[in-house]
Specification:
This is YdcF family protein. InterPro entries: Cell_Envelope_Assoc (IPR051599), DUF218 (IPR003848). Pfam families: DUF218 (PF02698). By secondary structure, the chain is of the alpha/beta class. It has a single domain, classed as 3-Layer(aba) Sandwich (Rossmann fold). The chain contains 7 helices and 6 strands, in the order H-E-E-H-E-H-E-H-E-H-E-H-H. It has helices at about 1-25, 60-70, 90-100, 120-130, 140-155, 170-195, 205-210; strands spanning about 30, 40-45, 80, 110-115, 135-140, 155-165. It has a 6-stranded parallel beta sheet with strand order 1-6-5-2-3-4, with helices on both faces. Helix 3 links the parallel strand 3 and strand 4 (about 110-115). Helix 5 runs parallel beside helix 6 (about 170-195).
């Protein structure tokens, strides 16, 4: 019994390490600092928690702030916000748009993906639904390799910029880093199975309109 348990644990550790190696290897050379990232047409901001009052959590706000600075610096010409709006009362993309517009970002430069339920779905939908071929992915650094790897595997010429400012929230940051180990393994499974997103839907032109 002990031997079997140790074997299962060992296989789990090996699988987790393999997932991490895949994400790091695929993203290698494609992650940058905010100052050094090459220009791309679109910033793809991946969703994160929104509070009950509609305000973005510090993790999401930090991502949005980076996207705004990239837009203002001329590094991107449009922002695609991809997140969860599976319930009427919970709206990551809509709350993000309100946040950015309140800070001076023109609404005409923002496109919203309401069905980015996880990172894989966000990448697939950015390519297949919104027609994104090249993008700067914006998220936290612990998530960046996986996000860039998934988007690149799905056919987007993706680079990435990560945020470290919310490390001051030590427990949420630590928990997120731990969860990322399992998420790396799921990312590999998603790529192997090439599953469709939870919701695919019709083609959208909002990114092209934001770029025009």
């Amino acid at each position: 019994m002990l031997v079997a348990g140790a074997l299962i644990m060992g296989l789990g550790v090996l699988a987790s390490a393999s997932g991490e190696l895949w994400t790091r290897g695929t993203a290698h050379g494609h992650t940058y600092s905010e100052a050094d990232v090459p220009a791309a047409p679109v910033a793809l901001v991946l969703g994160a928690q929104v509070y009950d009052d509609g305000s973005p959590s510090p993790f999401l706000a930090a991502r949005l702030d980076i996207a705004q600075r990239l837009l203002e610096a001329g590094k991107v010409r449009a922002i695609l916000i991809s997140g969860d709006h599976s319930r009427w009362e919970y709206d990551e993309p809509g709350s993000s748009e309100v946040y950015l517009v309140a800070r001076g970002v023109p609404a005409s430069r923002i496109a919203l993906d309401y069905a980015g339920f996880d990172t894989y779905d966000s990448c697939v939908r950015a390519k297949r639904i919104f027609g994104v071929r090249e993008a700067i992915v914006v998220t936290q650094t612990y998530h960046l390799d996986r996000a860039v790897a998934l988007c690149r595997t799905e056919g987007i010429d993706a680079t990435g910029v990560g945020d470290d400012s919310v490390k001051i929230y030590k427990e949420p940051w630590r928990n997120s880093v731990i969860r990322e180990r399992g998420a790396n393994l799921k990312a590999v499974a998603d790529v192997i199975t090439h599953r469709d997103p939870i919701f695919l839907g019709r083609q959208e032109t909002t990114v092209q309109e934001a770029l025009s």
